[in-house]
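Progress report, Aim 2. The chain analyzed during this reporting quarter is listed below.
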Amino acid sequence: MFMEVPAPPRLSDAAPKAARPSLPRLVLRAAPPYLYLAPALILLGIWVYRPLAQTAQLSFYSWNLLPTTPMEPVGLDNYRRMLDSPELGQSLWRTVEVIVGLLPFSIVIPVVVGLLTRQLGDRARAVYQALVFAPMLVAPVAGAAVWGWLLDPRGGVVNRATGTSVNWLQESGFAQIAIILITGWHVLGFAVLVVAAALSGINGDYSDAAALDGASRWQITRWITLPLLSPTLVFLMLMTVLLSAQWTFPLIDSLTQGGPADSTTNVYYLLWDYGFRSYDAGMGAAAGMLLFVGFGLVAAGLVWLSERLAFHDN
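Predicted structure tokens for the chain:
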């Protein structure tokens, strides 16, 4: 005689199904990281993206900045005038001159100084770095006033020390050089500190191992230190390319006003000149948008190159 034994209940039938969290509960669980970011994102939208959108809108209008004068839509006319203007090409070339002139101050000299000061003690190195960084703390307008006195053609210290009578700020051949040198004097300290921080982060075991294998100091620097320093050098180059014209703006405005004969007018000063000296807000906005797009493409290209050329210590 056979007895029918009931089958054991399936696990899916025995265990109660877990209730799926409601949508409000899922949102509350995912919200904290975004709430922490919210203040920064709100300020970024107010102070960066909102003015950028307003600038893009203004670039399609003609306006003289007077509240009593209405803005007149002109379509792409501001961009056509901007691209047809010979001033744009000349200012871009002067911007390239500034970038090339500042690269030794932001890359070459800081690397040399950083490598040389590695041999100093901690206290001496800190004092030296503080002295080099001091010009960065000087306000650009205050520094321009001092340099204007030093470069005075009649009784300036520079002309008296060199025995010359050069008008450094009012001669086309020297004004751009003076602006580059003064800007480099300001930027050098910051670049030295960045390079020094990067050098301190390089593991010394690599150099010790190479020295045990008979490598000279130059070989260690060439094949170990500089490759490991390459991400920092790419960062400094990126800053120089994107910000050099902006760094020179307060000096140009204080010392040369873009002259003589527009020899120191770069793209940033040209943008300001259109908007606040010619009172052509539409042209200034169009120049700003072209500058934004152009430097954005340059930055993207440099970042792409850095990912393929820079050596990272993993």
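The first helix runs from residue 11 to 14. The first strand starts at residue 61 and ends at 62. These observations will guide the mutagenesis work planned for the next reporting period.
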